[in-house]
Amino acid sequence: MATKSLKRFLVLSIIAAVATIGLKGFAYLATGSVGLLSDALESFVNLLAAMVAYYAISIAEKPADEEHAFGHSKAEYFSSAIEGGLIVVAACSIVWSAYPRLLDPQPIENMSFGLIVSLSASLINLVVALVLLREGKKNHSITLVADGKHLMADVWTSVGVLAAVALVKITGWLILDPVIAMLVALNIVWTGWRLLRQSADGLIDTAIPLEERQQIESIFDEFRQPGIEFHSLMTRQAGQRRFVTLHMLVPGEWSVQKGHDLLELVESRIRNRFTAPVTVFTHLEPVEDPVAHNDYGIDRK
Questions:
Q1: How does DSSP classify residue 240?
Q2: Buried b / exposed e across 11-24, counting CB within 10 Å, b at 16+?
Q3: Number of alpha carbons in the 13 Å side-chain half-sphere of residue 72
Q4: For residue 290, what are the contacts with CB-CB under 8 A and spacing of at least 6?
Q5: Rounded distance, CA 44 to CA 126, Å?
Q6: What is the pLDDT, as a whole number, of residue 212?
Q7: pLDDT tens profile 109-126
Q8: What pTM was estimated for this model as a whole?
Q9: pLDDT: is 272 or 177 the higher one?
Q10: Which part of the chain has CATH 3.30.70.1350?
Q11: For residues 132 and 34, is the Cβ–Cβ distance under 8 A?
């Protein structure tokens, strides 16, 4: 699927955020629950995050140009980092809202009504989050995955809040409302931290997953024979795109055309092995030259 088509999923996320803001805000006004207020505040963060993600995808889909010869796909990592930070902001807003009620618990009104309205909003987020996570993994888009995880964090927030409101109704323990809100905030911080770390890995040119590298090595095995070797395999990922660099050693007596034809076949096999777009850089060397066997890109001192 082309990168451009991914934007429609973020439009879905924006619509869901607007809908849940209205529902959760209405539930808070009806009940006065600080838990439901914190839930509504996080939906505002969801809306901002979805808008940032949409902008990032718009940049990432731009074709390579003179100033960005390798494309713009790393814009997705900035979006993921911002989203991770916004998740942490959402958690802080929950703590800020819950702390006064921790010191001075207040009764919750219209509990049953508030639970129904908030549950409806949570179901919307759950459906959209599952769609974003599925499409993000399918299309290797860290932006969609990040937005999906953000919405799932919101779903868990809602689950905690709904549990708190239900327990308050059953037990009459008003302190449970702010306590569970703070516990949910801690879980959200953990989600945000993982997104920030994943974004940092992408920005420092982390290699593609081990499983994918092993698939490339299996392609090499198909072509290896006396006089034909492969080495200096280096990989990195930028958003959806994978970059692969390799050296192929062939007999020095081969013509340039013969070596080139084999390299083209190897490159084609690598590109066709993955669903994500792959850019392959290759270098042809004579197998008899000792210098040709040196690996590049890894400091082996």
A1: T
A2: ebbbebbebbbebb
A3: 17
A4: none
A5: 16
A6: 87
A7: 666 676 777 788 889 989
A8: 0.60
A9: 272
A10: 210-293
A11: no
Closest Cα to residue 86, out of 44, 49, 132? 49
What are the residue ranges of helices labelled H in the chain? Answer: 7-31, 34-60, 75-103, 111-138, 142-171, 176-203, 210-223, 256-273
Sign of CA pseudo-dihedral 130, 134, 135, 141: positive
Domain 210-293 falls under CATH 3.30.70.1350? yes
Q: Residue 2: is it exposed, middle or buried by C-beta count within 10 angstroms (0-12/13-18/19+)?
A: exposed
Q: Is 109 in a helix, a strand, or coil?
A: coil
CATH number of 3-203: 1.20.1510.10
Domain with CATH 1.20.1510.10 in the chain: 3-203
| DSSP one-letter code for 63 | P
Burial 278-293 (b: 16+ CB within 10 A, else e): bbbebeebebeeeebe
Mean pLDDT of 268-285: 88
Other C-beta atoms closer than 10 Å to the C-beta of 262 total 17
CA dist 160 to 93, 104, 153, 208, Å? 16, 20, 11, 36
The dihedral sign for the CA sequence 208, 214, 219, 220:
positive
Exposure class string for 167-191: b at 16+ Cβ within 10 A, else e: ebeeeeeeebbbbbbbebbeebbeb
39, with CB counted inside 10 A (0-12, 13-18, 19+), is buried
The per-residue pLDDT for 264 is: 93
- The 8-class DSSP code of residue 276 comes to S
Question: What's the sign of the alpha-carbon dihedral 196, 199, 203, 204?
Answer: positive
